[in-house]
Amino acid sequence: MAAPSTARPAAKNPIVRFEETEPNSPTGQYMRRFWQPVFVSENLAPGRAKPLHILGESFTLYRGESGTPHLTEFRCAHRGTQLSTGWVEGDDLRCLYHGWKYNAQGLCIEQPGEKRKKLGGEICIRSYPVQEYLGLIFCYLGPGQPPPFPRFRIFEQGGYLDLHVYSRDCNYFQNIENGVDEVHVNFTHEYTVFARSGLNDEVPLIDVKETPYGLVEYATRSGDNRVRETHLLMPNILLLKLPPRVSYEKGWRDYLSWRVPIDREVHMTFGLRRLELDEEGISRYKQERDEQKRRSQTQIHWRDIAKKVLAGDIDLRDVVDHDELVTIQDYVTQVGQGAVANREGERLGHSDVAVVLLRRLWQREVRAMTEGRPLTQWQIPDHLSATIGI
């Protein structure tokens, strides 16, 4: 008689590994179905090329002499060298190694060393759709035609746009979850503008609901109309209000950010803060920002401070005057979860309901994608905005 089988039946609902980012992973494939920011526009000059590593994959980003940005594969199809070391000619890119030249669509249009006999067939490398918006370069890395490009009208309505870009040494999903975790503000962000604004006067009650664009988290504090809203736009966009940091701002800041994986253990945040400032206020703010940059050159870098806190060498209370205190605090708590958080060991409570819903949305959509079922067509309202809750 045959021995009984020890094979386990396939799981009906396999676990979705949020931390995965590579192109052959389910979550990596899901992220590629959306427009993602990958670079700061002003850091890519006309006629220059850059190597780009994002979502666990390498690419070549270049700006044609016309000013149009382009994204192609990382390596030349000939001998596999890095294309960004070559040079831009018009809107084409020529390889440094043997001079093969590619147009913006990835078609190899010149092979200078093959004059006796041109190689048969068309030689192409992959190119990707690119858009510029709000000072950022976006690309679409997924299959087929890209979805409609998302617009955020409130960031097109004047004021001053302050771009904030940084990398963090942990998985991107930890930062996405942090964005819909209002209670952490009361404890992580002591000694900051959050405390001075009144948000930290009491721990809020948390509620959440699914929306046509993702979810909205409600943080209710005592009193009339004291509900702070945080919007999560699927899959990785955060929209909320931040307290003003200078006295001449005319209201709370609009904040918009994308958490984009570099690889499994490092991610980028591309963030925008819209400040309500008149022309005089914009000039004053720029001067103060430049002064802050000069001052930061004499301070220990915020990342080094955060690492010292995690190592137990210093305490956060020792650095409450640092200009990047909020960034340090978030780094300590998120990287303190590990490069990749162990969610199987968590003990979640009611205050985590927005995190729970976020994970359910991701699980539902990624499973639908892997099973070939239709995905939710998320819709961003034209004038989505948040409430401040105090």
Structure description:
This protein is α+β, with helices and mostly antiparallel strands. It folds into 2 domains: 35-139, Rieske Iron-sulfur Protein; 153-370, Naphthalene 1,2-dioxygenase Alpha Subunit, Chain A, domain 1. The chain has helices at 26-31, 172-179, 183-188, 193-197, 279-296, 302-310, 325-335, 353-370, and strands at 36-40, 49-54, 57-63, 69-73, 87-89, 92-94, 101-102, 108-110, 127-128, 130-133, 136-139, 160-168, 205-210, 214-220, 227-233, 237-242, 253-261, 267-275. The strands form 4 sheets. The protein has a 7-stranded antiparallel beta sheet with strand order 12-18-17-16-15-14-13. Strand 14 (214-220) and strand 15 form a beta hairpin. Helix 6 (302-310) crosses helix 7 (325-335). It is globular.
CATH topology tier name of the largest domain: Naphthalene 1,2-dioxygenase Alpha Subunit, Chain A, domain 1
Topology as a string of helices (H) and strands (E): HEEEEEEEEEEEEHHHEEEEEEHHHH
- Uncertain residue segments: 1-11
Shape: globular
Total strands: 18
| Helix content range | 10-25%
Mean pLDDT: 92
How would you classify the helix and strand content by structural class? Answer: alpha+beta
Distance between the termini: 73 Å
CATH class of the largest domain: Alpha Beta
CATH architecture of the largest domain: Alpha-Beta Complex
